[in-house]
Amino acid sequence: MSRVMSLAEAVQSTIKDGDTVAMEGFTHLIPHAAGHEIIRQGKKHLTLLRMTPDLIYDQMIGMGCADKLIFSWGGNPGVGSLHRLRDAVEKGWPNKLEIVEHSHAAMANAYAAGAAGLPFTVFRGYIGTDLPKVNPAIKFIDCPYTGERLATVPAHRPDVAVIHALRADKEGNVLLEGILGVQKEAVLAAKKSIVTVEEIVDDFGPRNLNAVIIPSWALGAIAVVPGGAFPSYAQGYYKRFNAFYKQWDGIARERDTFLAWMKENVLNKTPEDFARHVEGLRTAAE
Amino acid sequence: MNYKPNEMMTIAAARALRNSDVTFVGIGMPSAAANLARLTHAPDITLIYESGTLATKPTVLPLSIGDGELCETALTTVSVPEMFRYWLQGGRITVGFLGGAQIDKYANLNTTVVGPYDKPKVRLPGGGGAPEIATSCGEIFIIMAQGKRSFVEKLDFVTSLGYGEGGDHRERLGVKTKGPTKLVTDLCVFEPDPVTKEMTVTSIHPGVTREQIQDATGWTVKYADEVAETPAPTEKELTVLRELHARTARAHGEAA
């Protein structure tokens, strides 16, 4: 059953050093504020799991939170490389980062299998690629009905899933709209979860009968963090701050500019600062 | 009208798309080409982005695969597992649009790593949707600027399958889709040889020489018996493409 608490308390009580943590969001609703809190609390030796590690994972990797990354596409979407991820993989800074590499289809299927309580997933994938040579978790089986050779990967069962949703109601159910990514699957696959939301409302009111709602009894901690997805976006609340994704390329390129930015904008800040970041973006979304 | 090689490349790729296509679109040049097709000769084309947006009609090009614009202008938006399981793997996409850091003469692509995997010279973003797009879409169009460092004899890593080692290798791997039927560059258009499946030049962009094409290719380039000249961009194509890019720059600039 979900429980509302501060983001600091949610991270402190839910995530342990060494955990496998999935912070999902497919461009939309990326839990940036939660990532900053994990950095401020100095969590270490995490295995970070995510289809599209982008800026927030670049920041967490650069600040030394992670020992391992399981992923399928690691870049700054539409801009280029993640320089902190590359520095960790290519030069071992600030620590060596082990990588386990998949395709999107495999990752999406692995979350769905985790949510379904299955040990592995089967799909038509990885044909003719070198990925199975570098990731021993990728195996192949013959279909017992047709004989077709099919790919399998183990289900994702993260210790903790962290997502950002639009709103929660007083009962602690949360609602998502727009691009949904694999957030619902990640939460249902995980042992524990943290959901940051834009706001808590008395009830969801009139809504689409097929709205994507994750019920209170399937959730862990809920923390109210307006603007918590910034510079990503929250459908109907504020737009994606595309300019920052471009700026990040320059900030993250060198270790010293990166560290100075992290000190000023993460270590010396609080989750409340996210509301201020999106003030100017709110009207643009209306 | 004067035009740049990149514009010729985008326009030549757009022309390959048909009004009836259901297209899996990647960010960057594929997205520009697919939307140009929609705004010119293929108004009913269905554009699908892997973030889950079905039949989207963005007025500006998205910076990322999941910009709000894609969702707001889509017929509907599905979850990412559904996108990969039902729509891509289910065989409902006619054309997949891919690019890459490296390509070989059998149109296999590398978007993973330059140099050895464990000690990479350059760590690239990785496969994303490409490994399964390459084998599940009816056919594949590839769009890539041509150069010796990207058009290589041997890939450092095969991220997505083209024709493997050529000939019937794709069929021997059990793949039933066609594979890369067009490779559009800033210099020319390649299509696979019917038997060997080696990518072969079938059309050269105006003003480009065979020497230029060879100088930008890491293998000995083969030409079809009859090589056409790619029709130059029309005024309409150029105007629509430039307006699209201008709208996009304004939209992303304003967000700053």
TrEMBL record, chain A:
SUPFAM superfamilies registered for this protein in UniProt: NagB/RpiA/CoA transferase-like (SSF100950)
Keyword Transferase among UniProt keywords: yes
Presence of the UniProt keyword Membrane in the record: no
Keywords per UniProt: Transferase
GO molecular function: CoA-transferase activity
One Pfam match: CoA_trans
Matching InterPro entries: CoA_trans_fam_I, NagB/RpiA_transferase-like
Official protein name in the record: 3-oxoadipate--succinyl-CoA transferase subunit A
Species name: Pseudorhodoplanes sinuspersici
Lineage: Bacteria, Pseudomonadati, Pseudomonadota, Alphaproteobacteria, Hyphomicrobiales
TrEMBL record, chain B:
Any one GO molecular function term: CoA-transferase activity
Name of this protein: 3-oxoadipate--succinyl-CoA transferase subunit B
InterPro entries in the record: CoA_trans_fam_I, NagB/RpiA_transferase-like
Record has Transferase as a keyword: yes
Keywords carried by this UniProt record: Transferase
Pfam families, A to Z: CoA_trans
Signal sequence region: none
Superkingdom to which the source organism belongs: Bacteria
The UniProt record lists the keyword Mitochondrion: no
